[in-house]
Structures are given as structure tokens and as C-alpha cells.
Design goal:
Layout: H1 11-28, E1 48-52, E2 56-63, E3 66-68, E4 73-77, E5 81-86, E6 89-97, E7 101-106, E8 109-114, E9 130-132, E10 137-142, E11 149-150, E12 155-161, E13 164-169, E14 174-179, E15 186-187, E16 192-198
Antiparallel strand pairs: 1-2, 2-3, 4-5, 5-6, 6-7, 7-8, 9-16, 10-12, 10-15, 11-14, 12-13, 14-16
């Protein structure tokens, strides 16, 4: 392998370098399982995916011998430096991985990539005040109707799962603007059950 550095590289390879640097940063922060390779699986079903803003996705595998990337050889991988080789020619990438973005520099250019969280809270994808099903189950009873005023913590409905009942309560005082279920409705985990919009209640302070 020639240990040279090419003058330019497409952003896709810089994104791979960013993904591996993030993986190495996470590995360095581990408090357990230091001897297990990053992303390693006993039975591999699909590659690891690291997503960035702009629909940029890098896929890689964690093997017993290190990282594997389709079409590239991973010569070196660390939190701040990654060396990738293609057709025997190696290119070094200097990486600074922040919480929200990753900067990658190499002899041919610079790339800044916004980071997409690997895991997101389902509540972030729905309207404010949405009540989500905490588990799959069946709606047993509904205690309110659309337009009702509710207080914080007031029961809205009861969900039954695995022969146990779970009361879903209003997260804050407000108005029930939507009820998407009725008794007998089967629901999936994180499905929207009702929406309580912030507003005044019938309670008055003196």
C-alpha cells in the first residue's frame, strides 16, 4: 500500500471518516466492555448506519479485526484522525466531532456535517400535549371528551396491557382538543391517544 495522500476526495469518504471518528469517540467514553470491538455483532445482519444532515448516510461494519467499509480499507481510526485507503492510496482525515456537528479536514478540502441523533424521543415528532400509549394495549375507558377542560394529572383514559391497567393522565392543565380512541380500541406503543392543548381550565383562583 502506498502511504500517500490524494489532493482531493469526494465528501462521501469524508463522511465515512466522520462516522468512524464518532464511533471511536463513543468507544473511548465506554465504562464497560472495553475489549469488544465497536459495532461488533456475533451474527451480523446489516451494517451500522451513521446519519448526518442533508440525507448523508455512512454505513460500516464492526468486525473482530476492526472496521470494514465497502470499497475502502480502514488503515487507522481514532477520535480525531482516520486514515482510509482506496486502490492502495491512503488519505488522512483530521476530525473534530462535536455534539451537533463534525468537521473533517483532509489535503483536498473541508467538510462540516450536522449530526442526526441516533435515537429520538417519539414525543418530539408529535404535537405538543400529545398523550402517547406507553405500551401496546387496549383502551378500557375514556374519561373525557373533546372540548373538556382538564387539570394537570387528571385521568384521561385507561389502557389495559398484559392484564394490567394503566391510567393515562393529562400532562398539564388545558383543553382536550383531540381524542383518537374509544373503549375497545387496540393501540400500539407510542401511538397518539389524545391531545391536551395548554389553556385555561374551569378552575378559578381567588
Amino acid at each position: 500500500m502506498r502511504c500517500e495522500q490524494r489532493a482531493s476526495k469526494p465528501p462521501a469518504q469524508a463522511a465515512v471518516a466522520a462516522a468512524l471518528a464518532i464511533a471511536e469517540t463513543d468507544r473511548a467514553a465506554r465504562t464497560v466492555q472495553h475489549g469488544i470491538p465497536v459495532g461488533w455483532r456475533n451474527v451480523t445482519s446489516q451494517p451500522q448506519r451513521t446519519e448526518f444532515d442533508g440525507d448523508v448516510v455512512s454505513e460500516w461494519l464492526g468486525t473482530r479485526d476492526g472496521y470494514a467499509v465497502d470499497g475502502l480499507d480502514v488503515v487507522e481510526a481514532g477520535p480525531t484522525r482516520v486514515v482510509l485507503a482506496e486502490d492502495g492510496v491512503a488519505t488522512a482525515y483530521d476530525v473534530v466531532a462535536g455534539d451537533h456537528a463534525v468537521d473533517v479536514d483532509w489535503p483536498g478540502g473541508h467538510l462540516r456535517l450536522g449530526r442526526v441523533p441516533r435515537f429520538t424521543d417519539p414525543a418530539d415528532a408529535v404535537a405538543s400535549g400529545s398523550l402517547l400509549a406507553p405500551m401496546p394495549g387496549t383502551v378500557v375507558s375514556v374519561a373525557v371528551e373533546t372540548g373538556d377542560q382538564v387539570a394537570a394529572g387528571q385521568p384521561v383514559l385507561v389502557l389495559e396491557a398484559m392484564k394490567m391497567q394503566h391510567t393515562v393522565s393529562a400532562p398539564h392543565a388545558g383543553t382536550v382538543t383531540e381524542i383518537d380512541v374509544q373503549p375497545g380500541t387496540q393501540v400500539a406503543a407510542n401511538e397518539v391517544l389524545a391531545v391536551v392543548s395548554t389553556g385555561s381550565t374551569t378552575e378559578e383562583t381567588e
